[in-house]
Task: inverse folding
């Protein structure tokens, strides 16, 4: 006998396949998502990198990459809000609601599509970084830990994107929320050590979530102890994910009621 969970999984799989086919037919989404982070990486490594002292003794591309990966994801989740907004405005969600499918599958399809698309963009950026000289002796376990952190980061930001997609009244508004998220890594340890920043800026940089995530990924790549940074990073990401999920589900229920 097929249970409710099987229906939810089947419905989510079908709708996720629909969204992924849209991306395959328009691969410029992934290309556009990767272009800005790659351009930033080229700018900082080849133009500004020589003037930046990190104090790590490592190449600047190695220092820079963790922050660039987060910017890649922050850029990509704007498309999730955009696609969800179009579905809501185009009436396709109302059509889905008239069909015998699980209501939650509509949101989860967008979330899983975001996860797949962003991980592909991240892989593209890592490939370019390797071509630019990025090297790591990280073990398979360290790579899996990095992947897990990036997945958690993507899910947390994607559920924020779902809120934006459900709440926006214009296409521009649906994607504009991602701009502060893209800017946040610039006030963190992503590009320069926080100790080089003025007092109030350094305090903010040291106590915002991006810094702990960047420091954790950087330590994993450098085969160094992650210390307590990883628990701070996981606490931030898990907290954001839970709050964003609850708010997104509540907003969705109001929207379709």
Result:
């Amino acid at each position: 006998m097929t249970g409710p969970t099987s229906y939810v999984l089947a419905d989510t799989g079908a709708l996720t396949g629909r969204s992924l086919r849209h991306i395959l037919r328009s691969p410029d989404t992934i290309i556009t998502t990767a272009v800005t982070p790659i351009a930033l990486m080229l700018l900082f490594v080849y133009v500004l990198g020589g003037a930046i002292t990190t104090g790590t003794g490592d190449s600047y591309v190695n220092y820079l990459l963790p922050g660039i990966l987060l910017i890649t994801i922050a850029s990509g989740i704007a498309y999730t809000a955009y696609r969800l907004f179009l579905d809501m405005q185009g009436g396709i969600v109302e059509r889905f609601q008239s069909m015998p499918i699980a209501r939650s599958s509509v949101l989860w399809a967008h979330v899983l599509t975001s996860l797949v698309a962003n991980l592909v963009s991240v892989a593209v950026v890592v490939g370019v970084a390797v071509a630019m000289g990025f090297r790591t002796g990280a073990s398979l376990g360290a790579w899996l830990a990095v992947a897990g952190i990036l997945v958690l980061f993507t899910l947390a930001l994607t559920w924020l994107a779902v809120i934006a997609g459900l709440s926006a009244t214009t296409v521009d508004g649906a994607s504009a929320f991602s701009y502060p998220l893209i800017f946040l890594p610039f006030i963190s340890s992503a590009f320069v050590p926080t100790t080089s920043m003025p007092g109030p800026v350094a305090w903010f940089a040291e106590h915002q979530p991006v810094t702990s995530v960047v420091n954790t990924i950087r330590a994993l790549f450098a085969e160094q102890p992650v210390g307590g940074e990883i628990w701070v990073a996981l606490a931030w990401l898990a907290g954001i994910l839970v709050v964003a999920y609850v708010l997104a589900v509540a907003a969705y229920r109001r929207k379709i009621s």
